[in-house]
Design a protein that fits this description.
By secondary structure, this protein is of the alpha+beta class. The protein has helices spanning 11-17, 90-95, 157-160, 175-179, 187-202; strands spanning 5-7, 22-23, 31-34, 39-45, 52-59, 77-79, 97-102, 104-111, 114-121, 127-136, 145-154, 165-167, 205-208.
Length: 228
């Protein structure tokens, strides 16, 4: 988890929601079926002046030392328990933390060989996934590529029946705390984020959906819709 999610608001809407100081001139297309390596909205704090920025990033973090934008292992999620240790993530978590906004995310409940898709949604508003980001480029002459990953944690009891992992979700009171570049994050800081996330994650709602194919608002409808 999390391998698919929905994020449908425009840059202007996200800017208002997250009280951003600046919205980058990038294309943010609504999508109800975002997959790893696609461009996604991201909220971060700029290095200069602590201005909050809404922009876009490639969903799958690539560290600066990587030889290629395509890695041999998945990096769209980063486990909160090991993010400070893994070479791909440990530099980013220190000061390069972000929020990845979402309307909902998808998870598949597995029984034997049967996998049933479900949507996990907030009671109101948006999900604010705790994330990290990193810049990568192929050569000094190439353009920088912004990449990002979503932190995950052990799922609380209310979600564990669906999957044992869930994103770390931040409440609005913790956005500035998480994004603050002046704070040097360590494992204790990450553990604190997880603790703060538990009550928010525990309150998320779940409903079964139809097979997650294509890209449209119908993907978030309960499974009874559209069935004969």
């Amino acid at each position: 988890m999390c391998g698919r999610y929905a994020s449908t608001l425009s840059g202007e809407e996200l800017g208002r929601y997250f009280a951003a100081d600046e919205i980058a001139d990038v294309e943010l297309r609504p999508s109800w079926n975002i997959a790893p390596t696609q461009q996604v909205p991201i909220v971060l704090e700029k290095r200069d002046g602590r201005a909050r920025l809404v922009t876009s990033a490639r969903w799958s973090l690539v560290p600066p030392f990587a030889d290629s934008l395509t890695l041999k292992f998945p990096t769209f999620n980063a486990r909160s328990e090991t993010v400070c240790e893994k070479p791909s993530f440990r530099s980013a978590i220190v000061h390069q933390r972000a929020i990845l906004p979402a309307d909902a995310y998808f998870e598949w409940h597995t029984e034997g060989k049967v996998k049933t898709p479900h949507a996990v949604v907030p009671e109101s508003g948006l999900l604010a996934f705790a994330g990290i980001y990193s810049w990568w480029r192929d050569s000094p002459a190439s353009e920088w590529v912004l990449t990002a990953s979503i932190l995950t944690m052990e799922a609380p009891e209310t979600l564990a029946w669906l999957h044992d992992r869930t994103p770390v979700v931040l409440g609005s009171d913790d956005w500035a705390w998480w994004l603050n570049r002046e704070t040097t994050a360590d494992q204790a800081f990450v553990n604190d984020a997880v603790e703060r996330s538990i009550p928010i994650a525990s309150a998320l709602r779940i409903h079964e959906v139809n097979p997650v194919r294509g890209d449209g608002p119908e993907l978030l409808l309960p499974a009874s819709h559209g069935r004969l």
